[in-house]
């Protein structure tokens, strides 16, 4: 994997947004895979600023959702469709019909998973997938010991992940759904470019396990080691457990500018 260490979350957001803008210049109808949570917000803010400045054009782009809670009422403010509408679609001026996502309220959830797999395939696949990483190394909602070949499916959240997400539900873990639809690790690996963004000391152990640890289902993010074009963007705090941090800094500082992310 390519590892880029940035000074802070703002710099990471600007770097990733710049990569998205570059992709859109080359492929205006690119499919951008987006994630939720607090970590990617600087990316969306920076990309929206580029759009306002006329330096990025998202008019033909499509937005693909990574995962969704099961069982929240339609329009619930913490459904990931609602979150992405607020944080991505509206700031970027992307129309709702350009949005691809699984139906967490479907009567037949297994069929909904299969339908989302088909929708991604029919869209030509994801060009750039933005990922976060959980404190236990999960990506999407692929918890530890998920199959590295898994496709979009139903998953049960661990109590650790529910506790981590309780901050979005007024701190009440009881309001956090127990089940989700998530792209599987195999589905995620189908994207042409994977960009994992992590900030803060709390992610340092997970980042080190994903980047420098063994390929193992106990750390789902380690599956990025299998991908031909995976970029890990971390701030100094999240990079603090990397044994090869100095090497990564040296490699990035000497990378030709034309190569990009």
TrEMBL record:
Q: Which residues form the active site?
A: 67, 136, 138, 143
The record's section on PROSITE patterns has: GLC_GALNAC_ISOMERASE (PS01161)
Please name the pathway. Amino-sugar metabolism; N-acetylneuraminate degradation; D-fructose 6-phosphate from N-acetylneuraminate: step 5/5
What keywords were assigned to this record?
Allosteric enzyme, Carbohydrate metabolism, Hydrolase
Q: Which SUPFAM superfamilies match?
A: NagB/RpiA/CoA transferase-like
In alphabetical order, the GO MF annotations are: glucosamine-6-phosphate deaminase activity
Enzyme nomenclature, EC number:
3.5.99.6
First-tier enzyme category under EC: hydrolase
The record's catalysed reaction(s) read:
alpha-D-glucosamine 6-phosphate + H2O = beta-D-fructose 6-phosphate + NH4(+)
Q: Does the keyword Hydrolase apply?
A: yes
Q: What does this protein do?
A: Catalyzes the reversible isomerization-deamination of glucosamine 6-phosphate (GlcN6P) to form fructose 6-phosphate (Fru6P) and ammonium ion.
Which PANTHER family would you find in this protein's record? GLUCOSAMINE-6-PHOSPHATE ISOMERASE
Q: What family, per the record?
A: Belongs to the glucosamine/galactosamine-6-phosphate isomerase family. NagB subfamily.
Put simply, this protein is called: Glucosamine-6-phosphate deaminase
The organism encoding this protein is: Streptomyces fragilis
What lineage, starting at the top, does this entry show? Answer: Bacteria, Bacillati, Actinomycetota, Actinomycetes, Kitasatosporales
Q: Which gene encodes it?
A: nagB
């Amino acid at each position: 994997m390519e590892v880029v260490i940035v000074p802070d979350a703002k710099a990471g957001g600007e770097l990733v947004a710049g990569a998205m803008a570059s992709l859109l210049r080359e492929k205006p109808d690119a499919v951008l895979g987006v994630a939720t949570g607090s970590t990617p917000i600087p990316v969306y803010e920076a990309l929206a600023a580029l759009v306002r400045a006329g330096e990025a054009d998202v008019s033909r782009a499509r937005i693909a959702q990574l995962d969704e809670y099961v069982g929240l009422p339609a329009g619930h403010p913490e459904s990931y469709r609602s979150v992405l509408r607020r944080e991505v679609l509206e700031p970027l001026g992307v129309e709702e019909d350009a949005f691809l996502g699984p139906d967490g309220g479907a009567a037949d959830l297994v069929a909904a998973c299969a339908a989302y797999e088909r929708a991604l395939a029919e869209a030509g696949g994801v060009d750039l997938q933005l990922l976060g990483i959980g404190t236990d190394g999960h990506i999407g909602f692929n918890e530890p010991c998920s199959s590295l070949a898994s496709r979009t499916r139903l998953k049960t959240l661990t109590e650790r992940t529910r506790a981590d997400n309780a901050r979005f539900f007024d701190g009440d873990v009881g309001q956090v759904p127990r089940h989700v639809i998530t792209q599987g690790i195999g589905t995620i690996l189908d994207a042409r470019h994977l960009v994992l963004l992590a900030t803060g000391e709390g992610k340092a152990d997970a980042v080190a396990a994903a980047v420098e640890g063994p390929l193992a289902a106990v750390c789902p993010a380690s599956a990025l080691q299998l991908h031909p074009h995976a970029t890990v963007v971390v701030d100094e705090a999240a990079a603090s457990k990397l044994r090869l941090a100095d090497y990564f800094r040296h490699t990035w500082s000497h990378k030709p500018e034309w190569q990009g992310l």
